[in-house]
């Protein structure tokens, strides 16, 4: 059993969150204190993190496709791929 370092409540290991404070010290806190400390609840935070990961992979995939198109079909297709990659990136980061 863990204890929240802010409010002192008991925590299940799966509910414990590690939060870095301003001095960079790591604290174990509960979901409620996480919300208080960051202004977002943990579900929203986790969702954003997941979203960022998906954006990263989408861009990575586009880049790989761009390189493939460049090698296989020449610079024109490569350039098209870069434009597409940038578009994917813009749309993905706006979708939040
Ligand atoms: Zn707490």
Molecular structure report:
With 96 residues, this protein is an alpha+beta fold. The chain folds into two domains: 2-38, Wheat Germ Agglutinin (Isolectin 2), domain 1 (2-Layer Sandwich), CATH 3.30.60; 43-94. The chain has three helices and four strands; from the N terminus they run ββββααα. It has helices at 31-38, 42-73, 75-94; strands spanning 2-3, 10-11, 17-20, 26-29. The strands form two sheets. The protein has a two-stranded antiparallel sheet with strand order 1-2. Strands 3-4 form a two-stranded antiparallel sheet. Strand 1 (2-3) and strand 2 form a beta hairpin. Helix 2 (42-73) packs antiparallel against helix 3 (75-94). It is rod-shaped and about 60 Å long. The mean pLDDT is 91. Zinc ion binds next to helix 1.
What structural keywords apply?
96 residues; alpha+beta; Wheat Germ Agglutinin (Isolectin 2), domain 1; two-stranded antiparallel sheet; 62% helix; rod-shaped; binds zinc ion
In short:
The chain is an alpha+beta fold. Helices cover 62% and strands 12% of the residues. The chain is built from three helices and four strands; from the N terminus they run ββββααα.
